[in-house]
Automatic annotation (TrEMBL):
Record's protein name: Kinesin-like protein
Family from the record: Belongs to the TRAFAC class myosin-kinesin ATPase superfamily. Kinesin family.
Gene name per UniProt: KIF19
Residue ranges, compositional bias (Basic and acidic residues): 440-452
Keywords: ATP-binding, Coiled coil, Cytoplasm, Cytoskeleton, Microtubule, Motor protein, Nucleotide-binding
MF terms (GO), sorted A to Z: ATP binding; microtubule binding; microtubule motor activity
Record-linked SUPFAM superfamilies: P-loop containing nucleoside triphosphate hydrolases
Species assigned in the record: Homo sapiens
InterPro entries named in the record: Kinesin-like_fam (IPR027640), Kinesin_motor_CS (IPR019821), Kinesin_motor_dom (IPR001752), Kinesin_motor_dom_sf (IPR036961), P-loop_NTPase (IPR027417)
Signal peptide (from-to): none
Compartment list: Cytoplasm, Cytoskeleton
Domain Kinesin motor: 11-304
PROSITE patterns to which the protein is assigned, alphabetical: KINESIN_MOTOR_1, KINESIN_MOTOR_2
Primary localization: cytoplasm
Gene Ontology annotations for the cellular component aspect, listed alphabetically: microtubule
Length: 613
């Protein structure tokens, strides 16, 4: 069965690129401290290490960092693209999201990697080229719609700061202090006209992040400093996201809302996307601190798992599965029809050629004689039909299983939300507690401290619903496992049945004559066609049901919102009346209208209730 709409865990891919040392760095007397040692490993040496320093003696002078792939000055743009981004394209044109983002301090080559130069085009251009090529190659079967947008986020973030802020900073002459995002959306629809058309949408984000260095390192002042702080808040939030997401064991609350950037990256980091991060460092000794920070963050990012799920628009997950069954069945019907045509053609041709062939006549006679043959054919027909019927049963059971799996997943996320909400509340309280503590011992340098919450804070009692959520999750995870096992078994059974059907069909030519073969094949065709109709009807029912539920949900939300508004309006009215406040004429009129509508509304409702009763 096709795995449309299926989702699987994917590790974030993290690549590291060490750019060539620059002339400026050499002139400053910097030495090379970052080296690529193999395809995946980079070593960073601490230039300040003093072997006589007793406090530091237990540390090693070198620290190695492992990535999915590592590049140094010898890597070409093409090589970087091939190893990081090229493989995402196929996914994007079949409905998956993907994100590539360049990370690292200013001046370390992010823009070079993403944008590149005319002679050495970067990932943007190479990706677009390949994307359009891939679309062209499959455009016989598929219809595509591609849209693109390019935005610099800081421009949106900082209202009033109209021009793009790209004045030189001390860190780098040309580096932008904006995050730049190129977004490509591909919508795909099959040209084969099914009743239920599956529209898939895949999105590719290519992001050139603003520098990750700290404001103090760029010696920025004033407004520049504020921008720097803003960017860094974004990056700090990103860092926190990376930290929290990579913390495998716990269900730490992920505060994606920390900044616009992380909200933008939410899908890439937390959810529905294949994500590649390309971290950048300079190999120069003068950049040691920045490089170490970057390597540490990038190293942590490796533990992030993202969930990849195909985006199906309009059709929900299992409807897509029905569609896939229908497509399969249609394929079968086509195949059978072709077989019938071939059969007819061959039969006629052979009829003409073999008319005088005694062996052929003998065979025909043999086939049409005895009752035994007729019975055999009936049996064969039955076997074929029952193999197919069972196959359909298995498919239905698979669908039910998938539905249950989805419910389990939804339940699980609901419980996870309960827990996450609690963790959030807990950390809020802990933060408050720590703030109070900090006031007491402010002098202590906490720059070395990690951001994780210590255990030394007072225990906060966990509410019962959180404990219940934990228990439920454990049970649901077990069920999920069971379902997966059953699913595998059913899929296996389905394959076997299919193979059996095919084998039976193969024996057709040997056992029966062309007329009967045609008859059996046509019968099979008919069975398949009926099955298509049946499946279509079911999926239509499901679709209507889904749409209805959707509307129901929307109405419920509106109702909720309306009653909130009512409450606010009435509360404010109360204040106006209590304090005898003067209200503009227009507002007074509007309030009258509101009251009237409220009355009519409740009247209407009463009538409806009456009718229902
Ligand atoms: P960032 O975007 O990270 O601030 P840039 O991409 O602007 O950094 O790179 C800074 C400078 O280094 C640019 O002049 C760029 O051409 C050069 N550079 C960066 N990476 C490479 C590389 N791999 N090969 C050659 N030059 C590079
Ligand atoms: Mg740049």
């Amino acid at each position: 069965m096709k795995d449309s709409g299926d989702s699987k865990d994917q590790q974030l891919m993290v690549a590291l690129r060490v750019r060539p040392i620059s002339v400026a760095e050499l002139e400053e007397g910097a030495t090379l401290i970052a080296h690529k040692v193999d395809e995946q490993m980079v070593v960073l040496m601490d230039p300040m290490e003093d072997p006589d320093d007793i406090l530091r003696a237990h540390r090693s002078r070198e620290k190695s960092y492992l990535f999915d792939v590592a590049f140094d000055f010898t890597a070409t743009q093409e090589m970087v693209y091939q190893a990081t981004t090229k493989s995402l394209i196929e996914g994007v044109i079949s409905g998956y999201n993907a994100t590539v983002f360049a990370y690292g301090p200013t001046g370390c080559g992010k823009t070079y990697t993403m944008l590149g130069t005319d002679q050495e085009p970067g990932i943007y251009v190479q990706t677009l080229n390949d994307l359009f090529r891939a679309i062209e190659e499959t455009s016989n079967d598929m219809e595509y719609e591609v849209s693109m947008s390019y935005l610099e986020i800081m421009q949106l973030l900082m209202k009033g700061n109209r021009q793009r802020t790209q004045e030189p900073t001390a860190a780098n002459q040309t580096s932008s202090r904006s995050h730049a995002v190129l977004q490509v959306t591909v919508r795909q629809r099959s040209r084969v006209k099914n009743i239920l058309q599956e529209v898939r949408q895949g999105r590719l984000f290519m992001i050139d992040l603003a520098g990750s260095e700290r404001a103090s390192q760029t010696q920025n002042r004033g407004q520049r400093m504020k921008e720097g702080a803003h960017i860094n808040r974004s990056l700090l939030a990103l860092g926190n996201c990376i930290n929290a997401l990579s913390d495998k064991g716990s269900n730490k609350y992920i505060n994606y809302r920390d900044s616009k950037l992380t909200r933008l990256l939410k899908d890439s980091l937390g959810g529905n996307s294949r994500t590649v991060m390309i971290a950048h460092i300079s190999p120069a000794s003068s950049a040691f601190e920045e490089s170490r920070n970057t390597l540490t963050y990038a190293g942590r990012a490796k533990n992030i798992k993202t969930r990849v799920k195909q985006n199906l628009l309009n059709v929900s997950y299992h409807i897509a599965q029905y569609t896939s069954i229908i497509a399969d069945l249609r394929g079968e019907i086509q195949r059978l029809k072709r077989k019938i045509d071939e059969q007819t053609g061959r039969g006629q041709a052979r009829g003409r050629q073999d008319r005088g062939d005694i062996r052929h006549i003998q065979a025909e006679v043999q086939l049409h004689s005895g009752q035994g043959e007729k019975a055999g054919m009936g049996q064969l027909r039955e076997q074929l039909a029952s193999a197919f019927q069972e196959q359909m049963d298995v498919r239905r059971r698979l669908l039910e299983l998938e539905n249950r799996a989805m419910e389990v997943q939804i339940d699980t996320s609901r419980h996870l939300l309960t827990i996450a909400g609690w963790k959030h509340e807990k950390s809020r309280r802990a933060l408050k507690w720590r703030e109070e503590q900090r006031k007491e011992c402010y002098a202590k340098d906490d720059s070395e401290k990690d951001s994780d919450t210590g255990d030394d804070q007072p225990d906060i009692l966990e509410p019962p619903e959180v404990a219940a959520a934990r228990e439920s999750i454990a049970a649901l995870v077990d069920e999920q496992k069971q379902l997966r096992k059953q699913k595998l078994a059913l899929e296996q059974r389905c394959r076997e049945l299919r193979a059996r059907g095919r084998r039976l069909e193969e024996t057709l030519p040997r056992r029966i004559g062309s007329e009967e073969q045609r008859e059996v094949l046509s019968l099979l065709c008919r069975v398949h066609e009926l099955e298509v109709e049946n499946t279509e009807m079911q999926s239509h029912a499901l679709l209507r049901d889904g749409a209805l539920r959707h509307r129901h949900e929307a109405v419920r939300r509106l109702e909720q919102h309306r009653s909130l508004c009512d409450e606010i309006i009435q509360g404010q009215r109360q204040i106006i009346d209590d304090y005898n406040l003067a209200v503009p004429q227009r507002l007074e009129e509007l309030y009258e209208v509101y009251l009237r509508e409220l009355e009519e509304g409740s009247l209407e409702q009463a009538t409806i209730m009456d009718q229902v009763a």
